[in-house]
Amino acid sequence: MLGRCDAMSATRAEPWIGKDSDNLTGLSELNETSLLKSIKKRYESDSIYTDVGDILVAVNPFRELSIYQEPWSQAFRRPDVSALAPHIYRVAARAFNSMVQGKKDQVCVISGESGAGKTESAKFIMQQLMTMCRSAGLGQRLQERIIQLNPILEAFGNASTALNDNSSRFGKFIQLVFEPNGRIVGAGLEQYLLEKSRVCVQGEKERNFHIFYYLYAGLAPEMLEQFHLRDPSSHRYLRSYENAVADCRSAESKAAFDAVLENMRSIGFSEDEIRQVVTVMAAIISIGDIDFTGGSDGSEDAAEVSTRAVAEQVTQVLQLESCDELCFALTTLRTTTRGETVDKRYSCRKAADVRDAAAKALYARVFHWMVARLNSYLQPRPAEDDLHLGILDIFGFENFTQNSFEQFCINLANEQLQQYFNHQIFAMEKMEYAKEGVDGLEIKYRDNKPVLDLFLSRPIGLLSLLDEQCRGLNGTEKAFVQRCRESFAKHASYVPHRGDALVFSIKHYAGDVEYGSGGFLEKNKDALPDAVVEALRFSSLRLLRTLFTRDPCSYTGSQLKKSVLRKSQRLVMRAMSKRRRPSMKKQRPGQGGGAGGKR
Fold first, then answer.
1. Of 115, 139, 557, 594, which residue is the catalytic one?
2. Mean pLDDT calculated for residue range 398-426
């Protein structure tokens, strides 16, 4: 009895010591139902982390816990953490130790639905890795710069959604570079699928990117006046959020803005670069207030700028050559055929689309430029014996009231990650059973390969059919939906809708999602008229000239899909498949079916 008390006291003194029940692969029956039941039971006892083989399942507690304090961090800074309890710090420790001891590159993958806590988990992994580095001098300074990435990326890449106040609206892959002894020598960042449409349109109870609200809170009144920024609720790109005014005046937004500027300075951005980034952000807000009306003959097919004063303000803030040139670019399509130039006026609706395309292009190119600059400050000189540790933090599965091209791409990315997790948890475990002569027929899981085939098959797949319409001169969303109905009428994962509505549903691993195809072609093409590019590239702002003269990070829709859905996933999935490694899967409490659930 005395011995048992001593053991219990030791456990209370060291709560990070693991137990046999921490890994659910020991369950007598391994399937989705048994996994979820066990995870729920652990969650109700405040054990938010659970192992399933090499996978760490984390359930968001939506409250502060003491398990991230220094004693916990210290406990996981040891060469062997196999005897310790499941924890995000153990993921970092296992990856770091495996890299240093085995001299092999590692990848930590964080996946899950929106609001599950992926961004915070990525921060914890980064923080723990930095504490484990044997660095001093230059290495210590580099560590500080890497930690300073997060506030900058969150300000420009995150937004408040219906489910998450700090939702990442882009995917990122951070690769840390180490010497063989574990000393960090550099880092690189890749970003994928920035949701730039959010600049112009936000869903119900959702906000634009954080940086716009930070501007209002952080800039002095005279600067706001200089940028022609009025009441936030009066600007088209900000007015959809009912609490915009309160957020723009909050002390939290002011502190966040100050932190972003300080981190940009500390990492290496010059004062002039920071000033120009702020200038472009302010101008984007005003671009949304440019309105159009029919021509002098009253025709809707001959758009003219009706808010000339706003166009003048945008011209002044962006230091463009002339307001006339900007207005022309927003309202007129100029084509040249066989030496003959033809000008055709847009309709008011098309002119508004061009205006929004300009705003989105400005935001996306600034974001890409900032990532490129961050990489230039962090990249090491390559060495043959360098070791790499990657952290993939990609957007969660999404199913909103209205789902468009952005959710279409995001959910495809999650389907591919789900396939990887299925293989790691179930398929590989079944292979181990077979090798040991153990009956593994009880391991049942849903294979999502049919869904991936639906998206990616060639020549008949959703992406192929969408590209087909984009290549045609007269392609439309209606024709795209009709081709899908004809091609996938008998596909178990595709659900056509009756009537003329341009919608369809996909049976994803995390539930059925209905997609509205409106805007699919335009977003996939991601085209910006030449006249708009010309108007912006002759700005007196050095940053603007750079963005529209040479922009290696600006992708067309087709290139974007290749970058995100093919290049990034191909490389990451290939790297992950080479070895078993620490991974994470996030889950919100009260949700069934893996990482997501019908909302």
1. 115
2. 85
Both tokens of 529, joined, read: 């008229």
Closest CA to 587 of 215, 231, 207, 117: 117
Rg (CA), the chain: 26
The pLDDT, as a whole number, for residue 444 is: 65
Catalytic annotation, pick one of 179, 398, 406, 415: 398
9 is catalytic: no
The pLDDT of residue 159 is 94
Under 8 Å CB-to-CB from 509, ≥6 apart: which residues?
A: 415, 418, 446, 448, 451, 593, 594, 596
State yes or no: is 558 an active-site residue. Answer: no
Give catalytic status of residue 168 as yes or no: yes
Residue 60 is among the residues annotated as catalytic for this protein: no
* DSSP assignments along 522-570, one per residue: HHHH----HHHHHHHHT-S-HHHHHHHH--TT---HHHHHIIIIIIIHH
Torsion region of 396: left, alpha or beta (phi above 0 gives left; psi -120 to 50 gives alpha):
beta
Q: Give the separation between CA 212 and CA 236, rounded to whole angstroms.
A: 12
Residue 138 pLDDT class (50, 70, 90 cuts)? low
Closest alpha carbon to 169 in 390, 410, 526, 511: 410
| Residue of 60, 73, 114, 493 marked active site | 114
Confidence class for position 299, pLDDT limits 50, 70, 90: low
| Cα 333 to Cα 354: distance, rounded to the nearest angstrom | 10
Predicted TM-score (pTM) of the model is 0.85
Residue 199 in this model has a pLDDT that exceeds 90: yes
Residue 240 appears among annotated catalytic residues:
no
Tell me what pLDDT residue 561 has: 41
- CB environment 264-273: b (16+ within 10 A), e (fewer): beebebeeeb
Q: Are 577 and 425 in contact (CB under 8 A)?
A: no
Instruction: Please work out, in degrees rounded to the nearest 5, the angle formed at the alpha carbon of residue 325 by the alpha carbons of 550 and 545.
Output: 20
- State the chain's mean pLDDT as an integer: 85
- Separation CA 128–CA 132 (nearest Å): 6
Residue 119 designated active-site:
yes
Q: Crossing angle of helices 138-147/149-157, nearest 10°?
A: 20
